[in-house]
Amino acid sequence: MRDRSVAVLAYDGLCTFEFALAVEVFGLRRPELGVPWYDFRVCAAEPGRLRAEGGVTLQARHGLRAIEGAGTVVVPGWRHDFEEPIPRALLEALRRAHAQGARLVSICSGAFVLAATGLLDGRRATTHWRYARIFAERFPRVKLVPDVLYVDEGQLLTSAGSAAGLDLCMHIVRKDYGAAIANEVARRLVIAPHREGGQAQFVPEPISPSDARSPLAPLLDWALRNLREPISVRRLARRAGMPERTFCRRFFAQVGTSPARWLIGQRVIAAQRLLETTALAVEDIADRIGMGSAANLRHHFRAYLQTTPTHYRRTFRGA
Length: 319
Prior knowledge:
Strand content: 5-15%
Low-confidence stretches: none
Structural class: alpha/beta
Mean pLDDT: 90
Distance between the termini: 11 Å
CATH topology of the largest domain: Rossmann fold
Number of domains: 3
Largest sheet: 6 strands, mixed
Helix content: 40-55%
CATH architecture of the largest domain: 3-Layer(aba) Sandwich
């Protein structure tokens, strides 16, 4: 990692849940992982005691100056009076941190703060679906993607509301430490290790893979155990006992993405684990996870992770 320091912003009117997500993922010590974890700090946007939602007050040890030395800066929501101007000192501190190479990360309405810096102009971003209309009106130069969990634009990462912030935080852990470490953190949090950013924010009929009442639950389990096989959407639909169109509609409603995209994502995750834990050649990994060829694996790996299998292995093998 270029810089393990993470600064999380605190402000008067703090969104307690979104703030706690960042503390849980980046702020807890994790000696059982055997790797140096993040150097965590909380930075106050204003001096003095800060009120948080739920009747909580807190006082941070650091001010805005500490943001500029961080490798990652997290804005966990923002005050929901969108007519109130965002403090100029905060915007300037975020611009300076970005200029120094820091990643700027927003959860939920924190995207309003990042957009106000001007750094999101011409880039993709997301926020909670409830705020999508007002965000689009206020920041027309930002390419709003209103219905996804999170968007990664390299140095600028934005997430939808509440729990989608946890998905983005885990995405950052995977980028920094690899899939194996991220899975260990997810196990400690008792959450699914991976939901890709392109999944829908609003899923009408969410399921858990262990929810036996859904006909898709055993199907997802079967697919994960048999990724090496040639699994088509038609084959999945037959196993689920549904016409293909009905199956695709039901799958999107319950999983938040298409069957084909879900399969590719799961195969990329499987490839990550094999690259980290084995010396198998890329061609052998592609065969083992059902990608068919090394060229196909490289194509999807780059599309999902913006890197190559070889570079990923050099970075995370034995981490």
